[in-house]
């Protein structure tokens, strides 16, 4: 990532009207407007989908292959804002690189639907894929920010329900610890152009609605991670959630999970969303695609 590219991305985030800790209704509108303003490439195709009563958006980009992965994707937004539609840009970049069909899940949001509603929706969506004949080995679970935390919570719920695990999981700048206890909450506070501890505390309180923030399905960092599938973690070097990623990788390795950690010095939160403009973001997604394709097991796919 060149310095000029990094400066442009940081300036964009710093000057954004989005205040993650602000009024939820207003921030939802702002978020949708910001992400909806970016035009999609002409090869992106979307349609609505239903996953066991959970709405989703099916995303394809470029050529798709019948033996490619099915991506089950969870958007970010601190469990309070964001949508499957707003995530199409980033999801399509991954789908194009993997020749996959992606399903971005519109899980229920807080404060209207606090924990564990999002986890329940994620598990229902995954069960539906299995019930429809999609082999677990062909599914890659993916997510960014809070969606990364939700993806990890889904893996725990899958394990605890006795269901087969997906082929792999990929989490981008994951929010894994709702206690906000990571050291980079302080050491990266002045460097992070996107997130603040105050905003995350506000949104965590809405999501938890009185639940213990150390509850494993709310904060997967505090879970027993044994039995999870191969895991790829990517994080930017200037984000306050960096420690969430670093500590997750350490705990996963201690739990005998096959884990790959990739950090990108100078990169902000979910920088991969700037892949069409920033070389290092595109390279990071190339590595995501290689990880997915390296683990997908299409055998038995109808």
TrEMBL record:
InterPro entries: AB_hydrolase_3, AB_hydrolase_fold, GDXG_lipolytic_enzyme, Lipase_GDXG_HIS_AS. Signal peptide: none annotated. Keywords: Hydrolase. Pfam families: Abhydrolase_3. GO terms for molecular function: triacylglycerol lipase activity. Residues 71-272 form the Alpha/beta hydrolase fold-3 domain. PROSITE patterns: LIPASE_GDXG_HIS. Gene3D superfamilies: alpha/beta hydrolase. Belongs to the 'GDXG' lipolytic enzyme family. This is Alpha/beta hydrolase.
């Amino acid at each position: 990532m060149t310095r000029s590219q990094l400066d442009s991305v940081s300036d964009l985030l710093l000057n954004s009207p989005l205040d993650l800790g602000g009024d939820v209704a207003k921030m939802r509108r702002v978020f949708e407007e910001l992400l909806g303003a970016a035009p999609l490439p002409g090869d992106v195709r979307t349609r609505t989908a239903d996953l066991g009563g959970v709405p989703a958006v099916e995303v394809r980009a470029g050529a798709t292959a019948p033996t490619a992965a099915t991506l089950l994707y969870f958007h970010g937004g601190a469990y309070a804002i964001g949508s499957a539609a707003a995530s199409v840009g980033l999801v399509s970049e991954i789908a194009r690189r993997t020749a996959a069909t992606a399903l971005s899940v519109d899980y229920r949001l807080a404060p209207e639907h606090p924990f564990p509603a999002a986890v329940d929706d994620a598990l229902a969506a995954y069960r539906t894929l299995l019930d429809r004949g999609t082999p677990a080995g062909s599914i890659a679970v993916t997510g960014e920010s809070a969606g990364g935390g939700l993806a990890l919570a889904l893996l725990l719920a899958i394990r605890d329900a006795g269901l087969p695990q997906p082929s792999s999981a990929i989490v981008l700048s994951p929010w894994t610890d709702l206690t906000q206890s990571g050291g980079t909450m302080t050491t990266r506070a002045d460097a992070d152009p996107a997130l603040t501890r105050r905003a995350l505390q506000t949104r965590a309180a809405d999501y938890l609605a009185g639940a213990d923030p150390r509850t494993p399905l709310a904060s997967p960092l505090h879970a027993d991670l044994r039995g999870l599938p191969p895991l790829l973690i990517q994080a930017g070097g200037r984000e306050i959630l960096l420690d969430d990623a670093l500590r997750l990788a350490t705990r996963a390795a201690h739990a005998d999970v096959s884990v790959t950690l990739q950090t990108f010095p100078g990169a902000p939160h979910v920088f991969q969303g700037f892949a069409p403009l920033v070389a290092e973001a595109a390279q990071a997604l190339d590595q995501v695609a290689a990880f997915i394709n390296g683990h997908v097991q299409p055998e038995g796919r109808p």
